[in-house]
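Supplementary Note 2. Why include the ligand at all?

Several targets in our set were suspected to adopt different conformations when bound, so apo predictions alone were not considered sufficient. For every target with a known small-molecule partner we therefore ran a joint prediction. The input for zinc ion is given below.
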Amino acid sequence: MKYWSEEIETMSRSEIEALQLKRLKTTLARAAHSPFYRELFRKNSINPEDIRSTEDLTYLPFTRKNDLRLSYPRGFLAVKEDEVVRMHASSGTTGQSTVIYHTAHDLNEWTDLVTRSLVVAGAGEKDVFQNMMSYGLFTGGLGLHYGAERLGMMVIPIGGGNTHRQIEFFRDFKTSVIHITPSYALHVSDVIKDMGLGPVDFNLRLMIFGAEPYSEATRDKLEASFRVRAFNCYGLTEMNGPGVAFECRQSEGMHVWEDNYLVEIIDPATGQPAGPGEIGEVVFTTLNREAMPLIRYRTRDLAQLFPETECPCGRNFRRLSRILGRTDDMLIVRGVNVFPSQIEHVLMKLPEVGTNYQIILNRVDNLDRMTIRVEIYGKMFHGEARELRLLRKKIQHELKEQILLSTEIELMEPGALPPSQGKAKRVFDNREI
Ligand code: AMP
Ligand code: ZN
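The joint prediction is reproduced in token form.
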């Protein structure tokens, strides 16, 4: 099966744009039923009927995470409460949760987007799907779950953690597709080795990665270690969750499901549209949601949108690069801007380096110090001191080339750092500013 919804997935650009405009108008009219947008439209004298093209959208203000927080719990609800059939909340650990509501229609459409994405990766009804993302309010559990069931795969709703059991299940149930965070996949690959097992013991063929940024070098490492193909799946709770954009088999960016989302890339500093192909903040407008339409929602994720629309896979939905970082995870160290993903890219390319690392920032005598703690493979760790010294130098050198900063490197034994079982926490910024 090449497409799940062939008619939609092979629409031409003009068909996509016509559908977007039609749905945008409906969305704006619906949004006006929520207390937040009713007030916003009133304050800014916005009449949704004045929007005549998708470009006109840029006249409307952005919606920010803080707006969702301040409107907790129901300020964005655009339907009657009894039409709502489920809520999810974003995984943020600080501040007020942001809550997203769904009607039965919304869940049905979301499920379809996920099923569509899984088909793009090449999954089919004969596959066994082990969902290794946590269930609950987090959307990576139920979101993928229902999409995989709709496709007809056998679904194992195991959730995150309990790694030995996960690996036994791979073997006992012939799991062929897994959905996992890349940081947890790195840990699982270590445990598989510790158990004396390898890819030949399993039936795995596809991995779906999502929920956190990772580098191309990490993907290469994991594809080699599991002997599978890995696909990038992007989403955020505010836009339902996974299934907003998904990589096709060309592996050149993720198709944004533009029949459901209108995507913009803006300069995060000015709010103005970024130039074609420029990196900027990703902004989405929902186009097919009843319970909680969101208009120009600022994701804080940084990426670029490829200008070409045609793809050899037959889809004309525009493609988003991998997420390069977040506007709020950029570190400024001695005045230099650094994204954790740049550091990860360097580390994961080095064969001596293991699967886990941390970035620690301290300020000593008013000077920023960046320390990278990195696990290396066991044989190396117990080898000669001279080799370790050389390795430390090599890592320092490679990092300096990439991020232009001197770092201190602490080499750690495998397993010394706490493993990730979901979204990884890697940066520890102890600087007091
Ligand atoms: P949450 O709504 O709590 O599930 O978190 C959503 C956030 O996770 C997004 O805004 C991204 O920062 C991150 N995320 C999700 N999927 C990916 C992905 N495939 N690559 C990079 N980051 C991702
Ligand atoms: Zn494609």
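The CA atoms of residues 221 and 286 lie 35 Å apart. The chain has twelve helices and 20 strands. Comparable summaries for the other entries are listed in the accompanying table.
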